[in-house]
Amino acid sequence: MPKMKTHSGAKKRYKVTGSGKILRRKANRSHILEKKSAKRKRRLAGTTEITGGQRERARRQLGM
């Protein structure tokens, strides 16, 4: 049986921490920023942890 390949799109979007958590960027912060309030843009800054069923899907895509 050959090795499982890592999903190329997933490895560019997710970061795995030392403890095994998977981090992602928040959506809606890439373009059309003029109409979004400063408060909303601050809230969308940074990264957040993937949880629930999405976490299992991401783990499988990353070959974990």
Would you kindly provide a brief summary of this structure?
With 64 residues, this protein is α+β, with helices and mostly antiparallel strands. It has 3 helices and 3 strands; from the N terminus they run αββαβα. A hairpin with a 5-residue loop joins β1 and β2.
Q: Can you walk me through this structure?
A:
There is one protein chain. This protein is 34% helix and 14% strand. A hairpin with a 5-residue loop joins strand 1 (15-16) and strand 2. The protein contains 3 helices and 3 strands. The chain has a 3-stranded antiparallel sheet with strand order 1-2-3. The chain starts with 7 loop residues before the first helix and ends with a helix. The longest helix is centred in the C-terminal third of the chain and has 10 residues, at 52-61.
Radius of gyration: 15 Å
- What spatial order of strands do you see in the largest sheet? 1-2-3
Q: What's the shape?
A: elongated
Task: Determine and state the CATH class.
Answer: Few Secondary Structures
Helix and strand run: HEEHEH
Rounded to the nearest angstrom, the distance between the terminal CA atoms is: 17 Å
Query: The biggest beta sheet, please?
Result: 3 strands, antiparallel
Compute the number of strand runs. Answer: 3
Estimate the mean pLDDT confidence: 95
CATH topology-level fold name: Factor Xa Inhibitor
Structural class by SSE content: alpha+beta
